[in-house]
Amino acid sequence: MGNLVTVTVFRWAGAWGPFKVNIPCGECSLTRDVIEDCIATDLAGIDVELDLRDWLTEWWKPLPKGGWHAPIVLVDGRIISQGSALNRGVLTQAVIEAAATDTPLRGNHIFGKETCPHCVRAKGYLAEAGIANRYYDVVKDTRALYEMLARVKPIIGPKTPVTVPQIWIDGSYVGGADELKAILGLAEVVPNPDRGQCSLSPEGAGKRVHSVP
Questions:
Q1: Which of 94, 88, 104, 91 is nearest to 151 (CA)?
Q2: Is the pLDDT of residue 105 over 70?
Q3: Deepest in the core among 25, 26, 29, 36, taking most CB within 10 A?
């Protein structure tokens, strides 16, 4: 994710005419600490810029977006929090959404989870076709979950439930395991209980099923 994401904070500070903020805002300071630590850890690898502003000096700027109660936090111009210390998860999701929206996905990717049989099928199809890929467990990897949601929601629509797996091949969205099977032209593969829960074999007497051109 290479494009710059800007996090803007309007903190309780500054001056306007005869008025001046003399008492520091504890929640504003905490919000800044959360953002800086999150950028260094949870958002490592994403280009994020922190822009600190004094609310009283520029109080009118966030108003058109609905921001009036410091600390006001915006990600690429969209308000994600105001009036209290920032929730770390809210920031992480918003930044990843902004970065994913501006950065196309390249290569082969599966977003799934360990307990999903359709994810097992999808990985089996790619193994059968000899296609290298990167797999993400969205239950164990929060960042992967946020990225999957950010990438798939604009495609399937905001009201359509998101299921797994979600698959991209050569940077193009495929869908789930059934769609992957169709575009690869592979025969069905099913879990073989005689060889272990996660073992895959072609259906029918253990015979090798070749790809159909």
A1: 104
A2: yes
A3: 25
194-209: pLDDT as tens digits: 434 444 444 444 444 3
Is it the case that residue 192 has pLDDT exceeding 70?
no
Does residue 127 have a pLDDT over 50? Answer: yes
Domain 5-102 has CATH 3.40.30.10: yes
Q: What is the mean pLDDT of the segment spanning 62-78?
A: 97
- Could you name the CATH architecture of 109-202? 3-Layer(aba) Sandwich (3.40)
Q: Mind spelling out the 3-state secondary structure of 90-119? A: HHHHHHHHHHHHHCCCCCCEEEECCCCHHH
Q: What whole-number distance in Å separates Cα of residue 41 and Cα of residue 31?
A: 15
Decide whether 5-102 matches 109-202 in CATH topology.
yes
CB atoms within 10 A of CB 3: 13
Residue 163 confidence class, pLDDT cut points 50, 70, 90: very high
